Amino acid sequence: MKVVCSVLAVGVLLASTSALARGSETDPNQSEIWNKVHASLFQGARFETNADQVIALETPVRAEDASVVPIAIRARFAQSPERRIDKVWLIVDGNPSPLAAEFQFTPDSGRADIETRIRIEEYSFVRAIARTGDGKMYMVANYVKASGGCSAPAGKDPAVAKANLGKMRLRVEEKPVAGKPVLAQLMVSHPNDTGLAMDQLTRMYAPPHFVRRVEVRYDSKPVMTADVDFSISENPNFRFYFTPREGGELEASVVDNQELKFSTVMKVDGSRVASAQPERTPQ
Amino acid sequence: MQFARLLHCALPAIVLLSLPCAAAEPPAALREFAVETPAPGVYIHYGRVQIMTPENAGDIANVGFVVGERCVAVVDTGGTYAVGQALRGAIRSVTDKPVCFVINTHVHPDHVFGNRAFVDDRPEFVGHAHLPEAMARRGPNYLNALRRDLGSVADGSELVAPTRTVTQTLALDLGGRTLSVRAWPTAHTDQDLTVYDSTSGVLFLGDLVFERHIPVVDGKLRGMLAALGELKKLPAKVAIPGHGRAASWPAVLLAEQRYLERLLVGVKKAIAERRTLAQAVQTVGEEERNEWALFDEFHRRNVTAAYAELEWEE
Fold first, then answer.
1. Is residue B32 part of a domain?
2. Which residues is A225 bridged to in the sheet?
């Protein structure tokens, strides 16, 4: 998580900048925050021009509920040994920590698609950046308006979120057919809390508590791995693909920033094998 | 209804002098700050059924006050410092009694940003036990949004945290009349309060009930429905919703109940049919479109919140 931490620092530095710093609604390259992220995280890497032939990003025009904004990143082609996407970055310019997630895919992923839900703090660009197997980089960006008024990125019921910590649901969304990519969904009950610096008004304080890594394996081989933080909504939710053979087991494991570890396993024919209670990994 | 219309600009000069910032001209929207009296000693100002804009100066939620023999209790303070000042002006045109309680029915900006107008009165600020945390978590975001959306009309608006919190119920003695404050389990938000004045039978519902303004789910859909079921049993003579007009009780809550039940059924069905959140938002509850004001502003958000809540029930 070294990279995430360095970007977090950028975010803190930029937190006080004006709306202008996030750039115009039309040109994602004019965003001041993006320019910093581009330099620090991507070393100013060049992006190919034909990004829409590689990757698509679906976002709502407006973050209806700023705490739960559904987004989808879709690969324009299935994974194959010749042509595949091995990594996707999800960036939200206006968030305190702009790098929301880094997803890694393999040939066993079948498709490098991911759907999740994010928090959106302010009017800004949301970006998906893909790196293909040949090392080329592609970026697509959509401008998302935050909602005004009473919509906030904070959780709705922190007490309940804490009580349900670590429950997991893993399921295959379609009838699995050997050799064909199949859609699966992972739900994790977790407050995914940004935390609260000591609040001068109320004296409230809360340490951050968020999922930092998600690994999904099919028959012990990774199909979707994600390094994430609190830009992902409460109760993190991921929809992704993998390519089953006959039967086999799908296993998801999650580690949070307090080193709590959760996991669940299911047989791809639908029956659940086991679900582990949260445990603290040895430090 | 003899106080149906109180003109802020017609306040006696002596009162104006006692207001710390009264020298500043109030926004045009607040120059006439109408107050109605549904019962003796109870005063309501109905906010506009709109989202906050510079033109309405954040005057979009219903606010009110109750006058006892000893002192005055305020129920919600409006969406800006300016609304809070206008409300304070309305109180001062009715009574010289001190403001001893300022009750916030929940954290939403249109109900709390006027608090600061009452700080010099040194009242108890009363809120749900979860209100301090909600203010801490949401306050910076709300203040940014207020400044962004209202510009200079937001000047002076600040959050003021509760000095007394309510876990279950609390009785507030105004002298000769007692208000019963009740804290609710998560419903519209996780910090909802209602306020009941047994002397007059007036029940302040906060945003547990919306009239004309589409209901907003920012807590828990099932909690909102459960709260409506409980509220119905209360023997109110007049019930004041957080938005929209007072109407006969409990009939005023039936439209919201219908909307929320449709939302529940529609979202459950979408989840059972394995439609995604993004898909559900496109279709669920469209049959309610013409029943409410501000449907486009809040309905999709409600579907989103309901989906995130209900998907764990499967």
1. yes
2. A104, A215
